[in-house]
Amino acid sequence: MGGGKIDVYMDIVSLYSYLAFLDLQRNSEILKQHNVEVEFHPVLLGAINAGSGNKPPWTLRAKAIYGAHDARRSIARFPGLVIQTPKDLMAVSKTIVPNRALHFIKSHHSPSTFLTALHYLMHLFWSPPNLNLTLPENVAKALLECPASFDSSSPSSSSTQDGGKKLFTKQQVEEIMKGVETPEVKEALKNATQEALDKGAFGNPWFWVTNKEGKGEPFFGSDRFHFIYKFLGLPFQDVTLLPPGGASKL
């Protein structure tokens, strides 16, 4: 039973990528039990929009109005999660530096370290006071302050876990920031973005899911996991309408 892989192409500037990440992380142990591998690939959403001919949803007034409702409902699925959209999202949307940093971390550190760093950077981007991660000095500061055990549902307690231990040393952060400027890391981000485009991406999060038979299909959005799990042949509970008086499960 089970088996397969979920490749996730995502940019920290994408709120729904953040929510998809949280969903996959809270189900990570069950996915492992089903022998399903999950890999996150930092990409540039702006380049995907440009390469696919897509435009940000807020450029269409009707989508922008609806988007506020959709975001509120989606965020509510994660109790304790505090989200605040940056005042000028476009001004902080060029996330080249943090995405390069993540590629360096992914290739030079453990998978758990990469996931913690990814989680923390998304938290800083989407939570008040919304750190501007387009600036290299802010990325370096964020990595230096990242708790070794980070939980976005309780960020204040994360800093005291493990005795306040940090994820990276000062020397490691300096190595990461130097790595951001290397041709290898620049190419890694470029290749990941192009790979997503080659697989049909027009937005984030973009999933390429391969089942145990080796067949692959694309999925888009943070609310498509029931389709993903069905494609992978995994047992799951779909949306079920209950009769009057039935006890709902949130």
Number of strand segments: 4
Task: Report strand order across the widest sheet.
Answer: 2-1-3-4
Query: How does the major sheet shape up?
Result: 4 strands, mixed
Portion in beta strands: 5-15%
Approximate shape: globular
Query: Which structural category do the helix and sheet elements fall into?
Result: alpha+beta
Assembly state: single chain
Mean pLDDT: 93
Pfam families: DSBA
Protein name: Thioredoxin-like protein
Domain DSBA-like thioredoxin: 6-120
GO molecular function: glutathione peroxidase activity; glutathione transferase activity
Write a structural description:
- It comes from Sordaria brevicollis.
- This protein is an alpha+beta fold and 250 residues long.
- Helix content is 47%, strand content 10%.
- The chain has eleven helices and four strands; from the N terminus they run βααβααααααααββα.
- It has helices at residues 15-26, 28-33, 45-52, 61-75, 96-108, 111-126, 136-145, 155-158, 170-179, 183-198, 225-232, and strands at residues 4-10, 36-42, 206-210, 216-220.
- Strands 2-1-3-4 form a four-stranded mixed beta sheet, with helices on both faces.
- A hairpin with a 5-residue loop joins β3 (206-210) and β4 (216-220).
- α1 (15-26) crosses α6.
- The protein starts with a strand and ends in an 18-residue tail after the last helix.
- The model has no long low-confidence stretch (mean pLDDT 93).
SSE topology sketch:
Blueprint: E1 4-10, H1 15-26, H2 28-33, E2 36-42, H3 45-52, H4 61-75, H5 96-108, H6 111-126, H7 136-145, H8 155-158, H9 170-179, H10 183-198, E3 206-210, E4 216-220, H11 225-232
Parallel strand pairs: 1-2
Antiparallel strand pairs: 1-3, 3-4
Helix pairs in contact: 1-6, 3-10, 5-6, 5-10, 7-9
